[in-house]
Amino acid sequence: GDRLVSRPPLRLAMMEEETRRGEKPKAEGNFLTRLIYNLEMLRVSKSSETPSEGNGMWSGEPREWAEERSLAQKASELSQKGFVASFKQWVAESVAGDYDQEEIGRRIDQTISSSPVVMFSFSKCPFCLRSKELLLNEIGMDKSKLTVIECDEDAQGNAIRAELGKRTGRTSMPSIWIREQGFVGGCNDGPGIVPLHKEGKLRGMLEAANAL
Length: 212
What we know:
Glutaredoxin; Thioredoxin-like_sf; Glutaredoxin_subgr; glutathione disulfide oxidoreductase activity; Glutaredoxin domain-containing protein; 4-stranded mixed β-sheet; alpha+beta; 8 helices; 43% helix; 4 strands
């Protein structure tokens, strides 16, 4: 598969929503869902790379995981079907706890409508990094036309993830939205912006959204 190019973290160069940032999301729900959430955060921490010049100062999960033929990609695809997908949605909703669904839905709608391209992301996710690199570095998208919400760094992030799961059937990140197209999946699937780019369709979508 394609290797990721080592570059400084892209989100430092992108326009990101500043409101509600600085406060991490909190895990709600019952003991089981809190345990699952905390174990997942521990797994991310333990598997993350050590920042270096060689990896572009990346401190997230291994960049190789975002390759189309990686085991992590295959696992991600399997987790978006059937019982596993339903279980992940249940966990996402439980971890989010009680929240104002109308408020969160309104925030999602306003974010999507206010920007040509929106990416709901996790800051340590290699699939999210790969998507940002494709849009900004390889295609040359205008960075001011991309809005990124890092759900693991946003106080409403867990609720946003739960609501996105209800809308799209996917709780995995990234969740990418292009004006006039709506939801286009994640990095490698759903259909995903990497396959769309390889099929020669992504640039046209971005041009139609006035993102280039």
